[in-house]
Design a protein that fits this description.
The complex is a heterodimer of chains A (211) and B (92). Chain A is an all-alpha fold and 211 residues long. In chain A, 73% of the residues lie in helices and 0% in strands. Classes of the chains: A mainly alpha (211), B mainly alpha (92).
């Protein structure tokens, strides 16, 4: 697990400013701090958390807001099957399965001994989870001054694209990955990021299947 | 409101957990690589196309060179973050 925790620091670096922003947004929207923190503790999925809080702040009915948040997370259904050749998913592993944890695990797990994989994965997830929740607490409790320097906030936010670049490099000659990436980017530029990622997963899933 | 939070948490957990359970019938195909490349592109390039893309591209190049030179993923990310912050501060 220690190895996974150490490997998680690029994720933690990228999560922190985003989580500070989430915590600040939640309390500024008038939501009580414990509720905002509970969202990060229980959901642990950035985009849907932002959607939930943003929609609630606009007066959208809570169940509708939760349903829309859940739609944003549909892509997560593809992550487990992609990791299954290397690691069987239990409840704890599944709880930690974010975009970034998935991408880093997909690169690292094949190179580990089977007995090392679960601990490594849990370390990755725990490192990401701690950063996300610490950032939420600091943002919600008024430490958003941490991001008063725009260059610092922007620089830390760049950690996630930088990490994804390095994880994507080995797949840039894979036609399925390139097609799926192009579709996701096109949808993203049209403002439909969640659907683009979902379609990318479907394309990857169907690629090369016999009719 | 709290019920909505619990439903979102439970739904997200089930989306992650159920497809990952032991059944071998669902094969992932190329879903892993496809999603990793898609996540990279959507995280790096926000709409609309803007001069910020050049800043991002330069910092990504720095990250790539950092990875090639150091062979260390974490260090390369750190170098990319530093370069991005520097360019962001200097950008007119």
């Amino acid at each position: 697990m220690r190895r996974g925790l150490k490997a998680a620091w690029p994720i933690a670096l990228g999560y922190f400013p985003v989580a500070v922003a989430f915590g600040a947004l939640g309390t500024q929207a008038g939501l009580p701090y414990p509720w905002v923190q509970l969202t990060s503790l229980l959901v642990f999925a950035g985009a849907s958390q932002f959607a939930l809080v943003g929609l609630l702040a606009q007066g959208v009915p809570p169940l509708l807001a939760a349903s829309l948040g859940l739609l944003l997370n549909l892509r997560h259904a593809f992550y487990g099957p992609a990791l299954r050749p290397y690691l069987k998913g239990g409840p704890l592993e599944a709880f930690f399965l974010t975009d970034e944890v998935f991408a880093l695990a997909l690169k690292a797990l094949p190179g580990l001994l089977p007995r090392e994989r679960r601990g490594y994965f849990l370390g990755l997830g725990l490192g990401a989870y701690l950063s996300w929740n610490l950032g939420t607490a600091m943002g919600a409790l008024g430490s958003k001054g941490l991001l008063a320097w725009p260059a610092l906030g922007a620089a830390l936010s760049f950690a996630l694209p930088a990490l994804f670049l390095l994880l994507a490099l080995p797949h840039l000659k894979n036609p399925a990955a390139l097609l799926a990436g192009g579709v996701a980017l096109a949808f993203h530029l049209l403002g439909q990021t969640a659907w683009g990622l979902f379609l990318a997963g479907v394309l990857g899933l169907l690629w090369g299947r016999k009719p | 409101m709290t019920l909505a939070l619990f439903l979102l948490a439970l739904g997200t957990f089930l989306l992650r957990f159920l497809p990952w359970r032991g059944e071998k019938s669902l094969r992932a195909g190329q879903a892993g690589p496809a999603l990793v490349v898609a996540l990279f592109l959507v995280s790096a390039f926000g709409p609309p196309p803007s001069p910020g893309w050049l800043l991002t591209a330069l910092a990504l190049l720095g990250t790539y060179l950092g990875a090639r030179l150091t062979g260390n993923l974490g260090l390369a990310v750190f170098l990319g973050v530093g370069l991005y912050g520097l360019l962001y501060g200097l950008w007119p």
